[in-house]
Every structure is written in C-alpha cells, then in structure tokens.
Amino acid sequence: MDNHLKKIYRIVHISDLHVGSTFFIPHMLERVINEINLIEPDVVIITGDITEFGFKSEYIAAKGFLNEINCPNVLVVPGNHDSRNVGYIHFEDTFGSLDKFTSCGPFDILCLDSSEPDLDEGHIGREKYYLLEKNFNNPNKIRIVAFHHHLLPIPGTGRERNILVDAGDFLKVLIEHSVHIVLLGHRHVPNVWHFEDMYVINAGTACTRRVRGYSVPCYNVLELDNETGILKLFRKVPFENSELVLSTSKFENYCKL
Ligand SMILES: [Fe+2]
Ligand SMILES: [Fe+2]
Fold first, then answer.
1. Ligand 1 centre and the CA of 232: distance in Å?
2. Which fold has domain 8-256?
3. Helix, strand or coil for residue 102?
4. Which of 25, 26, 127, 219 could form a disulfide with 14 if both were Cys (CB 3.0 to 4.6 A apart)?
5. Can you spell out the DSSP letters for 18-57?
6. For the CA of 51, the nearest ligand
7. Is the full-model pTM beyond 0.85?
8. What is the pLDDT of residues 188-217, one digit of tens each?
9. What DSSP string runs through 220-233?
C-alpha cells in the first residue's frame, strides 16, 4: 500500500479479553468491536490473553467475537493465559503463527510471542532477536513491535512481577533496531513510557472486571495523519468518549517519504 494513498491511518490496540473468565464481560467486548468497526482501522492489534485457560472452547468463543471485526489486518499475539494447558496449539489453529510480520501503509509491524507454556513470566528469547534484523529493513517505515508482557514497570499495578525475564537485553535490541513503538498488555492498566526514542504503550484490559485500583476497561487508538506526520494516541473507555494521551510530530519525516 502506498504511503500517499490515505490521509489518516488508524491502529486499534486492544488487549486482555480473557474470554472464559468469570471476569469477562461479553457485552463489553461486543461494544468494543462495534466501536472498532465505527473507527474503521487499518490494523487491529490484540496483545494477548485472548482466553483465560487456553482451552479450545475458549478459542472458539473468542474467534466468534473477533470474526465480527471489519478490518483487513487483525493481528493477534498470545499471552500467558493463552499458553496454559497447551493452549498455544489452539492459538495457532485459530489465529495463525505465534510470531508474524506485517507491513501496512507507513507501518512495519512485528508481532512476537512472549509466552511460555504454563508460566506467567514473559520471555522473548535470544533465539528470536534476529526477527528484528530480518524484518525491519526499510528505514522509511514506522517500526512497531507488539507482544503481551510488559517491558518496563507499570505504575499503579502493585508488586512488580511477570515482566519479560530478558527485558534488559530485549530493550537494547529494540533500541538498536530503531523501533519506534512497542505495544503491550498483561498488566490490565494502560500506560505510556517515552524511553530513549521509543514509545512503550500498554493497553488496559478491554472487557474484563480484572482491573486494578481505579483503572477501568479501555483500549488504545493510534492515529497517524499522513500529511502532517502527527501521531496521536487516544485512550478509549467502552461506551465513553476517548481521551487524547499523546500527540507527537516525531514521524513527520516518515510521512514525507
Ligand atoms: Fe491479562
Ligand atoms: Fe497476561
């Protein structure tokens, strides 16, 4: 797709659906999907914990919901819950490969599996670091990496746990490969860090009661104006208005190319 064909590119980033959990709110996921379809995004990225226990029945139910998303690029990565009970085989059957790369308009998007069977800790692993070298070879694209576990601590989430066990090494790899945006989930609390020259963006849980403190279910909408190069990040609470949480002109040069 040519960069100049469209004025606004939109990415919707949702996470932690937990279909099958007693905390999952089905009508809220339906509402989120209705809102996504009104946004008409170019890409939808779902950063894991689609299911609660990784059961086949949960994958079937989740797929039933997600089939209603009208978007040509729906990218799903597994979370720790999805890899419980050998759920990763159902993940592959339902959503395709665990790691994948997609190019869409001005974006190059690398999705990585940070889960490990029956463990809650996140792990990318040195054996997968080459995927950045292999896929990020166009200097004119905005580089996005999406996975489930958090890369940096998230305020308001209590005791620190389950962060990528190789967070330090992988942070270095991300920065060395000039990644611009990292999209994450897992902690159920939304957050944005600007670290070095990279935005590390966590989504909250989109549709569960598994929230912490005063946080509420929410998701992220990224909007890139291809003429001005301004990227905006909106936080959207289902049924409510969206809130602008970030606006940057840092991508001006990418849109002129
Ligand atoms: Fe989760
Ligand atoms: Fe998780």
1. 25
2. Purple Acid Phosphatase; chain A, domain 2 (3.60.21)
3. strand
4. 219
5. -BTSTTB-HHHHHHHHHHHHHH--SEEEEES--BSS--HH
6. 1
7. yes
8. 999 999 999 999 999 999 999 999 999 999
9. EEEEEETTT--EEE
